[in-house]
Amino acid sequence: MADLILEKTGVDFRKIYNFEEAKKLAESKGIKLEKHKNTVGHVMNEFFEEFCEAELIQPTFVYSYPIEVSPLTKKGKDPRYTERFELFVNGKELANAYTELNDPFDQKERFLAQLKAKELGDDEANEMDNDFIEALEYGMPPAGGIGMGIDRLVMLLTNQENIREVILFPMMKDR
Domain limits at 74? Predict the structure, then answer.
């Protein structure tokens, strides 16, 4: 992800460790940050979504997502990033894959960060899942997976912009 952002904007997020610096860069590029997007990782993700995502026409795997936007994913070699990748085609995400976080202490910290984000207005933030943390304490072997929604594949094949146009079960459609 950092390489794509550097190529498109000239900003190298691997060298940015301070939120205030990242925030100034976002403002200089016209990116408005919501209250809960208050880390370098959030700003990095905003840069990716604003300047890179739509231009990924050829099948492209984007990897090393910031830890702040991947709350269930194991940390990578650089602890600011995770072991996660997404497949993009025609400017749209087709698949999401990652190594499952199996450290109960790390997971609890991530859930606590999600609760703070929820308080600041993040509607997508996860709740605390104490049962899951307890299960992790008993031990979970290394695991991972990939999710590729059939609806996203149908969107690609039918050249649809809105997922609601291809959803199998219409009760999710607007009336």
Answer: 2-172
